[in-house]
């Protein structure tokens, strides 16, 4: 039987040795919820004695647990009632008076054997320095230690699972693949249902907290305060990608520029025409008054167009426009949270998000698998 190398000091608990009774490289059964086809590990094959011992321990523990379960059932009051209905009271009494005590005695001897076997493996682990400290062994094999107590004998099943899993990782087919697939399915089903219940309960608690006005307001204020920079960056990105190109395209195109400039020119022309004082003073000039009024309106129209064109060239310059977008985004990001419309919007978004998330959680994914043929 090979002796493994001493563990390195960088790990608090080193890899377990390959002795016959030590559960090498095993962890608590609760840490591995899924059962998958394991790859062939690049490590030495265990000796034939080691494999035989592990298999015998699986068989012995399984038989012991089976006998304990049968004895507990037959010694219960329910079995007495059933035996009375089926006219098997004599057979049940014979078992209770004849076989019950010997089975209990055999179970006690088996418990003593497990205690001695556990102590021997502990001594072997200490001698071979399998763990970083000598007292780590009972903590790693806690289910075996607790399984030695008569009231907790069901924990011995964990050792069967651990040994079987270790043999499976070594490449030995402990159970049929269909059984393993079904076990994996039911484990995932159980975990999914438990996690769904926890998540749905959390969502309900969060909804109840949001019904409190103070909690709701505090949540909105803290959320906006923590994300002001992100809000500003998002607004700036939208303005740069949506608004700025459209403004530049509108003023850069001949039609758009002429439309704005023409509208401004017509506005100034109408303003001059609708100024009675100017018309009265110009009419006082003989002969040339009407001509001056007409030319003045024409000049005003041209001035309006030129002003719009000049403003477009200056205000819609890339640098000035970007600075304007930055100022707008920064101003919007400093929004006051005491705003009814904002509160309604955020409340609606939160409620819709929670509803969608809750609906997704309620979808039972295990029903979409072929294991149950639903």
Strand-and-helix sequence, N→C? HHHHHHHHHHHHHH
The radius of gyration is 42 Å
What is the number of beta strands?
0
Q: Helical stretch count?
A: 14
Task: Note poorly predicted spans.
Answer: 1-41
End-to-end separation in angstroms reads 51 Å
What percentage of residues falls in helices of 4 or more residues? over 70%
Structural class: mainly alpha
Chain-averaged pLDDT: 75
Q: What about the largest sheet?
A: none
Secondary structure topology:
Layout: H1 48-74, H2 77-85, H3 89-127, H4 137-140, H5 142-147, H6 156-169, H7 177-210, H8 213-226, H9 228-252, H10 254-273, H11 276-283, H12 288-315, H13 318-333, H14 340-362
Helix pairs in contact: 1-3, 1-6, 7-14, 9-10, 9-13, 10-12, 11-12
Describe this structure in words.
The protein has 14 helices and no strands. It is an all-alpha fold. Helix 1 runs antiparallel to helix 3, helix 1 packs antiparallel against helix 6 and helix 9 runs antiparallel to helix 13. The N terminus is likely disordered.
Short overview:
This protein has 374 residues and is mostly helical.
Throw out a few tags for this protein:
374 residues, mainly alpha, 14 helices, 71% helix, 0% strand
């Amino acid at each position: 039987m090979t002796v493994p190398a001493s563990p390195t000091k960088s790990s608090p608990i080193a890899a377990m040795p390959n002795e016959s009774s030590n559960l090498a490289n095993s962890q608590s059964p609760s840490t591995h919820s899924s059962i998958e086809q394991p790859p062939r590990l690049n490590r030495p094959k265990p000796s034939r004695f080691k494999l035989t011992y592990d298999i015998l321990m699986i068989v012995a523990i399984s038989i012991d647990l089976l006998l304990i379960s049968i004895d507990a059932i037959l010694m219960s009051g329910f079995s007495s009632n059933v035996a009375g209905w089926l006219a098997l009271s004599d057979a049940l009494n014979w078992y209770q008076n004849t076989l019950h005590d010997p089975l209990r005695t055999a179970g006690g001897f088996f418990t003593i054997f497990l205690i001695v076997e556990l102590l021997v493996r502990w001594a072997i682990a200490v001698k071979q320095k399998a763990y970083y400290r000598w007292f780590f062994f009972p903590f790693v094999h806690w289910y075996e230690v607790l399984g030695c107590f008569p009231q907790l004998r069901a924990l011995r099943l964990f050792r069967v699972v651990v040994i079987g899993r270790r043999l499976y990782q070594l490449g030995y087919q402990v159970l049929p693949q269909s059984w393993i697939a079904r076990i994996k399915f039911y484990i995932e089903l159980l975990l999914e249902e438990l996690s769904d219940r926890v998540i749905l309960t959390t969502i309900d608690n969060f909804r109840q907290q949001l019904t409190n006005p103070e909690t709701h307001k505090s949540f909105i204020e803290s959320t906006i305060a923590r994300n002001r920079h992100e809000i500003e960056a998002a607004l700036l990105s939208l303005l740069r990608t949506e608004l700025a190109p459209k403004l530049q395209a509108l003023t850069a195109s001949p039609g758009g520029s002429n439309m704005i400039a023409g509208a401004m020119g017509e506005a100034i022309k109408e303003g001059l025409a609708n100024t009675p004082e100017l018309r009265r003073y110009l009419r006082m000039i003989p002969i040339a008054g009407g001509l001056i009024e007409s030319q003045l309106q024409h000049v005003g129209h041209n001035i309006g167009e030129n002003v719009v064109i000049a403003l477009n060239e200056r205000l819609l310059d890339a640098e000035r426009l970007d600075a304007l977008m930055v100022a707008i985004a920064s101003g919007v990001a400093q929004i006051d949270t005491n705003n009814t419309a904002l509160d309604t919007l955020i409340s609606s978004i939160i409620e819709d998000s929670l509803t969608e998330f809750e609906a997704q959680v309620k979808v039972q994914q295990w029903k979409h698998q072929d294991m149950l043929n639903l």
